[in-house]
Amino acid sequence: MNQFRSRNLRNSQKPSKIPLFLLVFSLFCLYLFFTVRNIGNIEIPEGKYSVEKWTVLSDIPKVVHLDVTSWKYKIWSRYFLGQIPSIKAGTYTVEHTTTLEDFIQKSLKAPTYSDLTITILPGWNIYDIDSSLSWKGIIKTGELLLAARDNFAEFQTKYPFLKDAPSLEGFLYPDTYRIDQNADAKMILDRLLTEFQTKIGDAYKNLWSSAYKDLILASVVEREEKDPIQKPIVAGILAKRVTEHIPMGADATVCYGYAKTQKQCTPDFIGSIIYEKSPYNTRSQQWYPPTPIASISLDTWNAVLHKQDSPYYYYLHDSHWQIHFAKTLEEHNLNKSKYL
Predict the structure, then answer these.
(1) Helix, strand, or coil here: 14?
(2) Does pTM surpass 0.85?
(3) How far is CA 104 from the centre of its chain?
(4) Is 308 helix (H, G, I), strand (E, B) or coil?
(5) Does pLDDT of 177 surpass 80?
(6) How many Å apart are CA 44 and CA 107, to the nearest integer?
């Protein structure tokens, strides 16, 4: 009887086993908890950060160039983040490396400058610029296009380089700008034209008879070639083809006649309209397009002014954007089979 009680007592003292799946789940939850909680400790380097109109809390990782999983950030900002200041448009300065939590709670209290930072990329046309600024909420869709049209005569009076130009295309200098958060489309255009005057205006004035043609060529080169070293060669090839009454054949020009942005100018779209006649289809007509097709950088302008002679008449880019030149159509077709 005593032996039975003793054995029963030992059995009753055995600890119950935790199911493996429950242990794994608990460890995962613990890992997730610490991972999410530590999002606030991610470091934000010193620098200036632009907050645009209608920026909300979920946009902050993009503002500080932070790659964080969206759902983890949402959980952290909802359950771990303390008081959140109202987010105002402007430029915010981080003088010393800080954490994401401190950036939101402290740095976002007041902007250093009550302005915005906008970036206009080389190769963008006016449709790209309008699309970018409207997507960021700085202007309404189409507002830049209307301002360019409605104020063109006034801009021509103010900027001599526009004297014989039919539009502002090609003169909207690509750069990063700080603008007043209340700036309208006309003020933004004026700022871009002023920068063109500063960077290129004098050289443009000195080449008055050929300047607009050079600007058109530079805009094509800007869209066709990214490497500054290769740009003078590409400029030389395109100019030589036109001089020798060979169609320029630059597909980048085709989309402009259809008021397309770079994103809309896909290979599929180009393929669908490449045989349609248009002043901007440089496969079907043997001269430059009637206007520039994009904004140009200073290095592309200089590449056109210093075009490089070469024996080549053709070029193409492979999937890594490496350029391949050819002297004859046969060589060009061989490059197509090798690299495309």
Answers:
(1) coil
(2) no
(3) 25
(4) coil
(5) yes
(6) 11
